[in-house]
Amino acid sequence: MILVTGATGNVGRHAIRLLLDNGNQVAAVTRNAPAADLPLEAHVVVADPSAPQSLATSLDGVDAILLSPRAVADAGAELLSLAAEHGVTRVVVLSATTVEHPAGQERFAAHFKAVEDAAKASGLQWTFLRCSDFAANALGWAPQIRSTGIVRGAYGDAATSPIHERDIAAVAVKALTDTAHAGRHYLLTGPQSLTQRDKVRLIGLAIGRELTFQEVSPEQVRQSMLAQGVPEDVPERLLGSLADFAKQAGPSTDTVDRLLGRPALTFAEWAAEHADAFRS
Questions:
Q1: 2-4 and 64-67: which strand pairing?
Q2: Spatial CA neighbour of 197 closest among 228, 237, 242
Q3: Is the C-alpha dihedral spanning 217, 207, 195, 107 positive or negative?
Q4: Which residue, of 43, 204, 224, 278, is most buried by count of CB atoms within 10 Å of its CB?
Q5: What tens digit of pLDDT does each residue of 6-57 get?
Q6: Buried b or exposed e, range 133-161, using 16+ CB within 10 angstroms
């Protein structure tokens, strides 16, 4: 049995589907089962990963855990210690490139590093997937694109190599099911370095509409996000990283190609798959 925290996130959903398609038993952890819309074949566990004792009875028979640091908050060490007590042997951590290539506020990278350290101290076999920014983060632009065709943002020249969530999920499944990946950390990025302006242009091509990136101040972006009800740490994380990526592009690797034996999916492919989200 493989237990997936962050089961309703972009990566979690794809990982669950791949695991099930490969004949694995999956326990999908969610706080809200009716709203989760998880595959019927998955064993749904209603629990809060940030309160590990709520998972205690569900860890028996689990061999490996896909761990999302954002899902467990500050309880990573407690959850992994509990998992070891229940006979779990492996953990795959969805970490971030900032652990290895600092960008933005140090406290955000420190959170991922703390979960990695907890995995090392747990006695479990561990694998760390240090991911670049998710292509799916661009969905945050969808309301602006649908209504005006203009994305108002800061640091338009900030460049990263955005990664498709399906590629992260595919690598995670390999690490969860093959002990050859134990004790390794992988820097996972998309295949192409793109500025924010590039990404807006590619979304426009996917939907057949000319889009514009309009530069505004970081404070305007912050206030706009907060007005939409976004938690305060989200604009702080985003703007801090973008400020650094405007000075120096984020890392780009061929790790996905090597691990999956095929080219990493491009941002253009991601935009084509999600085109409906951006259409009026």
A1: parallel
A2: 242
A3: positive
A4: 278
A5: 888 989 999 999 999 999 999 999 988 888 888 889 999 999 999 999 999 9
A6: bbbbebeebbebbeeebebebbbbebbbb
Question: Does residue 141 contact residue 97 with C-beta atoms inside 8 Å?
Answer: no
For residues 154 and 197, what is the distance between their CA atoms, to the nearest angstrom? 10
| Residue 278 identity (one-letter amino acid) | F
Taking the C-alpha atoms of residue 59 and residue 224, their distance in angstroms, rounded to an integer, is 41
Q: Which residue(s) pair with 169 in the sheet?
A: none
Dump pLDDT digits (tens) for 216-253: 999 999 898 888 887 888 888 889 999 999 999 999 99
Q: Which two tokens stand for residue 185?
A: 């950390």
Are the CB atoms for 280 and 146 separated by under 8 Å?
Answer: yes
- Check the CA dihedral 248-131-95-28 and report its sign: positive
The CB density around residue 179, as the number of other CB atoms within 10 Å, is 13
Distance CA 149, CA 143 (A): 9
Cβ count near 247 (within 10 Å): 11
CA torsion through residues 270, 273, 276, 277, sign: negative
For 124, phi then psi, to 5°, come to -80, 155
What pLDDT does residue 60 have?
93
142-158: pLDDT as tens digits = 999 999 999 999 999 99
129: which DSSP letter? E
Distances in whole angstroms, Cα of residue 124 to Cα of each of 20, 90, 168, 170: 23, 5, 21, 21
